[in-house]
């Protein structure tokens, strides 16, 4: 209980810092910009960590996250293509990239009656490399859009929300929150499947259906997130571990705690990204810079 | 009506035939041992009986109704399956593990109620794991963990218990406690089928045996009639000595 209160307080501090800290004085225009960043930070950090928690549970592997399964890279490829072709981030292409790579990885790993979990990660990593190569080609061809794609690959919360994209972004966030609420219903299945697929099947879980729903819902969520803020790494990998260290193995607590901790972490990282150097850094750079030592500390403790 | 009945079951992976036209039944109150050499198909048969695998041909009936026309939840309310060894990737408490046996009775978001907790207490009591209740599962020995898995199976309130070599990695003491536990559960009315490769344990505890060899039923019947030198020579390809257990009067095999 005290831990829950503590992480909520830290979350609120992260929001406050996200609004108050920055190189310029706070006026109404700056306030609006920072508020939109805070909203996007909560959304993206929460979703990525939530998906990491889902996928690590589903595949019983602590290394799984939207990146290692290829769906984040697929989404980045789709989004880069959108920038190259239309000069703007295109959510549809980002989903298609994410779902396409997800489908491919799933097909490679599928065998009769189940999924080969090792092959799944191998396929995911290989597909990530392929997507990265294709993005490089787009960047070389793009020239003018290079800078924009670079920020997309690293993740950036400072996109300007204006009259043309406001409705779309609000709709995407609403869909994501709906999906998160829907996926929460699987907390028991995630607990059980950590003991192996046979145990899960013996307890009455339809493994095939469950894996499909969770895998592709998270691919969709990642596609949605990347299409708005770009591909932010590390949140989906480390936050579920932090959550398990704090709250134990049960997913009924971990899914929610991962969302909250992911949001908090990304808000801190974004605030840092605005003050570390004279220029704003892509937030993904900061999540790795802060995340790696933190991760090592947690495991060496 | 039998608890489980399999009729003309065929099962194969790609082109490798695993189960070749097996018909068998598990009657109510039975304590059945499924024995046979490695790779004979006995573990596959067990997975077919509880619906984890689906036969390519043939039908399985659960209390007279086609198994595959029932939902996986309904099956899990009737049949509990205990795998050979469970790897716990997450370190749940023993009580949490046993509580997972209530899954087939729960809807999404429905919290555990008094009925669930009563079932869990009863299961932990029967499997004698109450004292470990708050211990992390991975801090237990493999014999104790196996008892927790059986407790989880009992929390399902099953009418049928299917176990795949439940004693294979256990020392003499734990082999004994697990088999005694199964015998007690059987006396309380649960029908049990257990895959064994230890013929002597099977002979000591099972009422009837089915011997599977190369995907077919080689023999079935009481241990006293089934375990003989000729069978062991033909199925396992070795010469053995068989004597009668001095107290229980069932055959025991010596190399």
From TrEMBL, chain B:
<dbReference type="InterPro" id="IPR017871">
    <property type="entry name" value="ABC_transporter-like_CS"/>
</dbReference>
<dbReference type="Pfam" id="PF00005">
    <property type="entry name" value="ABC_tran"/>
</dbReference>
<feature type="domain" description="ABC transporter">
    <location>
        <begin position="4"/>
        <end position="239"/>
    </location>
</feature>
<dbReference type="InterPro" id="IPR003593">
    <property type="entry name" value="AAA+_ATPase"/>
</dbReference>
<dbReference type="InterPro" id="IPR027417">
    <property type="entry name" value="P-loop_NTPase"/>
</dbReference>
<dbReference type="InterPro" id="IPR003439">
    <property type="entry name" value="ABC_transporter-like_ATP-bd"/>
</dbReference>
<keyword id="KW-0547">Nucleotide-binding</keyword>
<dbReference type="GO" id="GO:0016887">
    <property type="term" value="F:ATP hydrolysis activity"/>
</dbReference>
<dbReference type="GO" id="GO:0005524">
    <property type="term" value="F:ATP binding"/>
</dbReference>
<keyword id="KW-1278">Translocase</keyword>
<keyword id="KW-0067">ATP-binding</keyword>
<keyword id="KW-0813">Transport</keyword>
<protein>
    <recommendedName>
        <fullName>ABC transporter domain-containing protein</fullName>
    </recommendedName>
</protein>
